[in-house]
Write a structure and sequence with these properties.
Blueprint: E1 9-11, E2 32-39, E3 43-52, E4 65-69, E5 75-81, E6 84-90, H1 93-117, H2 121-132, H3 138-155, H4 165-177, H5 182-201, H6 231-237, H7 243-254, H8 258-262, E7 269-270, E8 275-278, E9 281-284, E10 290-293, E11 302-305, H9 308-313, H10 333-347, H11 353-366, H12 371-378, H13 383-421
Helix pairs in contact: 2-3, 2-5, 3-5, 4-5, 7-11, 11-13, 12-13
């Protein structure tokens, strides 16, 4: 049995074998090779039966490093650095230790740079979201979270001190190039601005790079399709078949939003004044469970006029806390959507809840209701929103008049030409 430092197979030179015998008296070299020697005319073959090296221990006596020898002759050093197990490969122990030391120095360099530059965008966004989310309504949480995740995907590992306004503009321009709507771009920019403003307030940056940058133009808002002409007739004919039918009829003739109609209680109905008080709305959390909240805007708190045809289909309950359309308790989002969809499909109704609101706005426009009064009845936060609907309805009315007049004018012109020809 001999102790050698060379690789498992050593080639001879000038009929002499080059072999380094190690001094093991004072553990000058920590490798131990247990070998069997085989000699032929050209090569000295060293067959390794066992290889090991004592593990180094840290200040607490825990084993930290481990050396192993691969079948291909390479040495593997495994070490725990910053809580992670790392592996370094080389032909000699000095080589693997050098690679390990270089890696440690690189980690220390990055740590020092991070300490000088502060937090990453991902870390700031996480702290901002933790404070922001509890203050958001359930309906707003989804849109904000999506915008935040988009921003984190783009800037997550970047230090907030390195983010520039130009980078943000390029980031937003990608959404415009991909065909996103102006609303999505505005929402993404708003969330980005809020996160960086939080970083400014926390002292991470000296100025918010998102302020003052131009907003790219996205695709124009796609106008909602009008209510199919036969839908109101179908809703009229099936208005008492189920609670979902009654709810659809209620939305069509009061302009209530879906969440507002679902949240109505018996105590909200006043048959004396023939009104319904909208004081709350149903929203849904991430678990799709119902949550009662204030209406969408402050203007959403209002009284709806109840015409005779609506009062006729409203159920009555003795308990004032009973929900009008859901006496057994509020449904989950899945139950509400599937219930309405099943009712609509069974009667061939295509209108969404929002389209029914527009149908009600169309009724107000046809009845020459002043735009300010219509704003109150629809619960719009600004008169501009109502005016947009009225303008759209007026444009459609003019188009309908044009479509009626054009054939008449064309027929009259042809008849006149025929008379002159005769």
């Amino acid at each position: 049995m001999f102790l050698y430092k060379n690789a498992p197979v050593l080639q001879h030179q000038d009929s002499r074998f080059v072999v380094d015998i190690l001094d093991t008296q004072n553990n000058a070299h920590p490798y131990f090779y247990f070998m069997t020697l085989f000699l032929d005319c050209k090569y000295l073959i060293v067959q390794i039966s066992h290889y090991a090296r004592p593990q180094q221990e840290d200040a607490h006596g825990k084993k930290r490093t481990k050396y192993t020898l691969r079948k291909d002759g390479r040495i593997v050093l495994s070490d725990t650095i910053n809580g992670e197990r790392k592996y370094f490969y080389g032909k000699t122990d000095k080589e693997v230790e050098q690679k390990r030391d270089d890696y440690i120095r690189e980690c220390e360099k990055h740590a020092n740079e991070a300490a000088g530059k502060g937090r990453t965008f991902e870390a700031v966004a996480a702290d901002w979201w933790e404070q922001c989310e509890p203050r958001l309504s359930p309906n707003t949480v989804c849109g904000y979270r999506t915008a935040k995740n988009r921003a984190v995907d783009a800037f997550g590992g970047q230090y907030v001190t390195d983010i520039t306004g130009h980078q943000i503009v390029v980031f937003l321009q990608r959404f415009a190039a991909r065909g996103y709507s102006q609303k999505v771009i505005n929402n993404t920019k708003s969330v980005m601005r809020q996160i960086l403003n939080y970083a400014f307030l926390c002292g991470d940056i000296d100025a918010n790079p998102c302020i003052g940058i131009p907003t790219p133009k996205g695709n124009p808002r796609v106008p909602r399709k009008p209510t199919p002409p036969d839908d109101l007739q179908k809703i009229e004919e099936s208005k008492t078949e189920s609670l979902f039918a009654r709810m659809s009829y209620f939305m069509a003739y009061t302009g209530a939003r879906r969440g507002e109609a679902a949240a109505l209680k018996q105590k909200d109905i006043d048959l004396t004044t023939r009104t319904a008080c909208v004081a709350r709305a149903v929203a849904y959390s991430d678990t799709r469970k119902p949550v009662l909240k204030s209406p969408k805007t402050e203007a959403g708190v209002r009284y709806l006029d109840l015409p005779d045809n609506v009062i006729e289909i409203l159920p009555h309950y003795d308990d004032p806390e009973t929900f009008i359309f859901f006496p057994d308790g509020l449904p989950t989002k899945t139950e509400l959507e599937s219930g309405l969809k099943k009712y609509q499909q069974s009667h061939g109704i295509q209108s969404t809840a929002h389209q029914l609101r527009h149908a009600y706005a169309s009724m107000l426009h046809s009845a020459n209701i002043d735009v300010k009064d219509a704003q109150y009845l629809l619960g719009h936060s600004t008169i501009a929103m109502t005016q947009d609907i009225y303008t759209d309805l007026e444009d459609k009315r003019k188009q309908q008049v044009h479509n009626k007049v054009n054939p008449v004018s064309y027929t009259h012109l042809r008849a006149h030409e025929t008379t002159l020809h005769l």
